[in-house]
Amino acid sequence: MAQATAALIADDTGAAAHGAAGRRIADALRRDILDGVLAPGTRIRQERLAEEYGASRVPVREAIRALEGEGLVTVVANTGAWVSRLSLAECDELYRVRERIEPLLIRMSIPGLDDADAAELARLADAMESAADADEFVRLDRAFHDLTYRGAETLMLGDTVARLWNRTQAYRRVYSRLFLRHAARAVHHEHHLLVHAIETGDADDAERVLLGHIRRTRLALAKHPEVFDDADAASLQ
């Protein structure tokens, strides 16, 4: 009996260790994908990850499965895993979904935002106007929109929106390089309009501005199919 109990404890301890390592690897891999260190289409080699993080193949496989569930990694049976890629049609559909659900999320969020949140949003909107490059802009833009949604208490909508953002992050970064040269004024203006709507508690205006804000990006991406080649290029890494 004592030996059986000890074996069970050892199994539980091993499973817990694998779980913790898997979460650590998944967090690091997710960050590399979202930060553009790993471009769409990059091969993910399990043995290299195991060596890099001093882990066995088990937590590495758990991390890859977790990111596959988030849509960030594509696994082909008996072949391997890659950072997920999007076609223009797939990205267009994701943005159309965002146009429908993010205005609802910001409406739900506004009552939960306070004056300090509005002040931080105004600071982020100003900072985006002076961003040094697309990477800085994308980081600030994500922080801005995440904060606009922070006041909402949801069971699934917030997580759904976060996953949609993650799926399109690489393409938004490349698009932002174009936008910073050609469409900066309109996008910055929309950010400030969102801040004003939140300051005044005008959920109707916030919904209207946000829908147009997301739609603008979708339509611009449709005019620049080369973004989907550029985002897959090694130059993004």
From TrEMBL:
What CDD domains does this protein's entry cite? Answer: WHTH_GntR (cd07377)
Q: Which Pfam families match?
A: FCD (PF07729), GntR (PF00392)
Query: Which residue intervals define the domain HTH gntR-type in the entry?
Result: 19-86
Key word Transcription regulation present = yes
Note the InterPro entries from the entry.
GntR_C (IPR011711), TF_FadR/GntR_C (IPR008920), Tscrpt_reg_HTH_GntR (IPR000524), WH-like_DNA-bd_sf (IPR036388), WH_DNA-bd_sf (IPR036390)
Per its record, how is this protein called by name?
A: GntR family transcriptional regulator
The terms under GO molecular function for this entry are: DNA binding; DNA-binding transcription factor activity
Q: Organism source for this protein? A: Agromyces mariniharenae
PANTHER family, per the entry? GLUCONATE OPERON TRANSCRIPTIONAL REPRESSOR, TRANSCRIPTIONAL REGULATOR, GNTR FAMILY
Task: Please give the SMART domains that the UniProt record associates with this protein.
Answer: FCD (SM00895), HTH_GNTR (SM00345)
The record's section on SUPFAM superfamilies has: GntR ligand-binding domain-like, Winged helix' DNA-binding domain
Q: Which UniProt keywords apply?
A: DNA-binding, Transcription, Transcription regulation
